[in-house]
Here is the input.
Amino acid sequence: MKIRTISLLVAAACLQAATAQAQSSVAVQGAVDLFAGSLKYSGDAGRRSVVNSGGMTTSYFGFKGSEDLGGGLRAEFALNGFFQGDTGTSGRFGGDNLFSRDANIGIAGGFGKIQFGRGLAPSFLPTVLFNPFGDSFNFSPLVVHAYVPSGAFGARTWIASNAADSGWSNQIIYSTPDFNGLRANVHYQFGEVAGSSGTNNIGVNLLYAKGPLGLAAFYHNAQVSNPNGGAALIDATAAPVNYRAINKQKAYFLGGSYNLNVAKLFATYQVNDDDTPTAADMKDKTVSLGASVPAGQGSVLASYARTKRDGSLVGADLKRDTLSVGYDYLLSKRTDVYAIYMADKITGASREGSVGVGVRHRF
Here is the structure.
């Protein structure tokens, strides 16, 4: 009788452990993306023949998980870090943090989700979802204009339009439930500046997807650099243009897409207002158009972006226009190969071309 009782207790304990295990999950995830090619943005000092990481997606790895808390609530976490697949180096660039893609935890339920830590900036999803090259920091014209500078560090021929990086640290994000295809994310990043509680980043984005139509908008008011706080909000360049003086940026974005089946069309418009402690200012206006056309077991991709930069900080107006065309071929649901050509032109510099052929695998 005692043996039977003990057996029942052991079985119950095992069942309880199995149930608890079923209520929690942890997954390894990431992407490895490598390409070979020749790169030169307009304004760069020279051309580079490369095997580089992140032709279509910045390579990353990490973990995400959730636990069912009962009552319709669950805990969620994400720890994801970028790496350079061509060298095995951690981060997107030298000095980048280990988990610069995600380092956060949150509580989710019928009310939506509240998240704490490092996560996406409000500008990121509208930018990468509304251009045909997605989150390509090498070849997407819209992403290049928004996030990628040209020229040597501290002596840029062109700085990125968006301040405060594509991800924000030290932030709280509230994400709404899905309302018939419409959802929103509200972002607040603490500046963590002693004696200056008004120095922070705030932002919001709206995303709508239903049927063939997609719409997006975002706004941010940024005063804190990322992934770590520092003196330069956008760029450290001090001459011949003192971009380092910029200490506040307001950005406004509208985007749309429509799937005609024979082609998916994209269009965006963005305005960035940059201020300094003096009267000097700078404004960027960016327009982008794009299309993704199904062809065989892949898609032909084409995208164009044009940014006009003016204001007393830069003096004479500057312009940048970038065009990319490519083909992305699906080998499977998780693996694709691609070939892309990009032409880039900045005021005062020659038009330059870049080309890349690569492979991407998601896991």
Summary: The mean pLDDT is 94. The CA atoms of residues 155 and 240 lie 8 Å apart.
